[in-house]
Specification:
The protein has five helices and six strands. By secondary structure, the protein is an alpha+beta fold.
Length: about 140
């Protein structure tokens, strides 16, 4: 994927930090935490710039948040979303052996009928177990 084109499509200026963070997220099949990202990119990108980059990507709908069982926020590219329609309410899976969290894009979170007066803003469903790679 061409990071420059993606950033341009979402009306974001292409900077070295944005390009590198986006490429890292695209290349990974699992969600990454802020510290995972900071440890894998050029050290010249300071912590604040990385944070702002992730916030911009979230705001534009390029990535989505994945919450794991330890309360750590991780980030993954939105493969199923477009600029016009942002939908990432799918199941996430965390492997108990390797610790990686993956998006299961094809498995939607079931509809849940909330009590009268409650309004859902966001849904998260995390399944824990053993991933296909560790199961081999």
């Amino acid at each position: 994927m061409d990071t420059k084109k993606i950033l341009n499509d979402y009306k974001l200026k292409s900077t070295p930090c944005r390009s590198e963070v986006l490429q890292l997220l695209i290349n990974n099949e699992h969600a990454l935490s802020n510290s995972d990202i900071e440890n894998q990119i050029d050290v010249s990108h300071d912590r604040v710039t990385v944070y702002r980059t992730l916030k911009s990507f979230l705001d534009k709908g390029i990535i989505h948040k994945v919450l794991d069982d330890e309360g750590i926020t991780k980030y993954a590219v939105c493969h199923e979303c477009s600029k016009e329609e942002h939908h990432h309410e799918h199941v996430h899976f965390k492997c108990e052996l390797c610790g990686l969290t993956q998006c299961l894009d094809n498995i939607q979170i079931p509809q849940i009928k909330l009590p009268l007066g409650f309004i859902a803003k966001e849904k998260n469903l995390l399944i824990q177990g053993i991933c296909a790679q560790c199961n081999n």
